[in-house]
């Protein structure tokens, strides 16, 4: 019989008891000040907060929201919610007020922890009437019902609550193809299965260090930072801001790091900003000097202690993987979804195969359906979408396999390669999902735009490819080009105002061709063929992105 899965709180209590004075979290407070918290500190604060939550006498399993950027108290609040027998609902810290309200109302949140945020003023109108709020130690200006200090005045709970394996731990909201968020339900067993297997897979332990900078509400950071620290005992260093990120990274000198492709590219661009690419490449080609230079570059980034570097959420360009390899750092690709705790595939060290992601993780079954869809099943598979049995039935097969929506193939060694998408929703290089249809509908409302296709798979921000109407083309050909361009710029600003940050358009590209059935851009029912459009213009996407003009004329 297989070993019983250890659950998160059980492991936390063990560490809290075994090394209460060991440093657990390092939180920048601004102005060069740091807050260091031990396992005992974290346990005590979580227990006091849990005591306060219990005193509110909410029904067991009440949903409690966490609205904050990454910080030590994000995780402490999560632990307190679990200790009190409730379900955490993390929200992205940059949602629009409308999106925040949608999640808080759908989840029927009974309380919201409000923490470190950049623009609370814009988000605050999204709080439902009467929803009690608790401000975390790092919080924006504003009026809140309770403060963290209020919670810390309670006597800590003395027991060690251990939720059942099948008890709901969290609901993680992710964008659906309609643009309406779906609440992915994970129980403690899902987290336990993914975290315990991942720790064995990488062999990480108490001497390892992590830096937390990607949103903790995203499943990847939740697994790689929060759950991994509980299961392996690592120390977590938090990043303060984008401006201080390099200093934060050098302070942490992480030994394990997860990044999205955009982050790895930014590091590279930062290096090239200090040393021209051709000069660095020439030095790296020299046998002994190349190794010394590579080491210095990594040290300058704070990455010289890395044992495992992982990249997920979108494909990494092969040239970028090769560049890091020449510096002396191997980046392994990871594949997973919110719906399976991000636990599905990872390339094992020494088994890299160009163009392929890697092998399925221990305990993960994979099959390729008749239509080429990759389907996976494991103990990390979600319980379903909250209050949405129809979407749950669409996502899970009768025998419990998760339909990923990705097309792919496997080789004899079990390596997986993704070859396309079955569903239209795409993921930017920042690892965020974007549903193109609602954005296209808004752009298409302009009287001079006849056809529109929003693209952005693997790009930092989406781009809208547009075909002008006949009147629009005539105006552009005559004297009306400047006026039309101004009108389209205003349209982009207006549309972006109603979108969450990760959905906002970089700009519009006005293409020359009119998309028609005859030239293969439309189906007989006049639907655009995304694959044809992306195949036709795809090699220009990166160039258009770099030009960063709001309205571009396809030359």
From TrEMBL:
Keywords: ATP-binding, Nucleotide-binding. GO terms for cellular component: membrane. PROSITE patterns: AMP_BINDING. Signal peptide: none annotated. Pfam families: AMP-binding, AMP-binding_C_3. It catalyses: a long-chain fatty acid + ATP + CoA = a long-chain fatty acyl-CoA + AMP + diphosphate. This is Long-chain acyl-CoA synthetase (AMP-forming). The lineage of its organism: Bacteria, Pseudomonadati, Pseudomonadota, Gammaproteobacteria, Pseudomonadales.
């Amino acid at each position: 019989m297989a070993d019983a899965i250890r659950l998160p709180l059980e492991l936390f209590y063990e560490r809290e008891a075994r090394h209460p004075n060991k440093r657990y979290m390092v939180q920048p407070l601004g102005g060069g000040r740091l807050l260091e918290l031990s396992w005992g500190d974290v346990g005590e604060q979580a227990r006091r907060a849990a005591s306060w939550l219990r005193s509110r006498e909410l029904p067991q399993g009440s949903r409690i929201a966490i609205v904050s950027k990454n910080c030590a108290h994000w995780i402490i609040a999560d632990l307190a919610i679990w200790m009190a027998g409730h379900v955490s609902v993390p929200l992205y810290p940059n949602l629009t007020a409308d999106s925040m309200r949608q999640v808080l109302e759908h989840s029927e949140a009974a309380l919201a922890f409000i923490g470190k945020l950049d623009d609370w003023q814009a988000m605050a109108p999204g709080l439902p009437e009467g929803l009690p709020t608790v401000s975390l130690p790092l919080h924006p200006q504003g009026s809140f019902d309770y403060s963290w200090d209020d919670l810390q005045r309670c006597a800590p709970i003395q027991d060690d609550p251990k939720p059942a394996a099948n008890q709901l731990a969290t609901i993680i909201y992710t964008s659906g193809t309609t643009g309406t968020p779906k609440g992915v339900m994970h129980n403690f067993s899902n987290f336990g299965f993914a975290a315990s297997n991942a720790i064995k897979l990488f062999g990480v332990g108490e001497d390892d260090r992590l830096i937390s900078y990607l949103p903790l509400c995203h499943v990847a950071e939740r697994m790689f930072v929060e759950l991994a620290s509980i299961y392996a005992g690592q120390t977590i260093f938090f990043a303060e801001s984008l401006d201080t990120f390099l200093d934060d990274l050098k302070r942490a000198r992480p030994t394990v790091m997860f990044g999205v492709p955009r982050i790895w590219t930014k590091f590279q661009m930062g290096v090239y900003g200090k040393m021209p690419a051709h000069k660095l490449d020439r030095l790296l080609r020299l046998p002994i000097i190349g190794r010394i230079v590579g080491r210095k570059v990594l040290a300058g980034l704070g990455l010289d202690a890395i044992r495992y570097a992982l990249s997920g959420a979108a494909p990494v360009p092969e040239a970028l993987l090769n560049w890091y390899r020449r510096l002396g750092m191997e980046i392994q690709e990871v594949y997973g979804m919110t719906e399976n705790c991000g636990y599905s595939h990872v390339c094992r060290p020494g088994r890299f195969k160009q163009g392929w992601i890697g092998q399925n993780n221990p305990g993960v079954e994979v099959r390729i359906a008749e239509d080429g869809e990759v389907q996976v099943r494991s103990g990390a598979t979600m319980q379903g979408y909250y209050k949405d049995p129809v979407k749950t039935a669409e996502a899970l097969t009768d025998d419990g396999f998760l339909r990923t929506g990705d097309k792919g193939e496997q080789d004899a060694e079990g390596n997986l390669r993704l070859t396309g998408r079955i569903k239209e929703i795409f993921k930017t290089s920042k690892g965020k999902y974007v549903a193109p249809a609602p954005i296209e509908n808004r752009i298409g409302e302009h009287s001079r735009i006849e056809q529109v296709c929003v693209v952005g798979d693997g790009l930092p921000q989406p781009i809208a490819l547009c075909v002008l109407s006949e009147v629009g083309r005539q105006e552009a050909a005559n004297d009306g080009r400047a006026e039309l361009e101004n009108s389209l710029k205003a349209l982009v600003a207006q549309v972006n105002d109603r979108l969450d940050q990760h959905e906002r358009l970089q700009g519009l590209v006005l293409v020359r061709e009119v998309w028609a059935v005859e030239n293969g851009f439309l189906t007989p029912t006049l639907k655009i063929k995304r694959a044809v459009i992306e195949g036709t213009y795809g090699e220009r996407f990166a160039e258009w992105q770099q030009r960063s003009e709001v309205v571009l004329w396809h030359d």
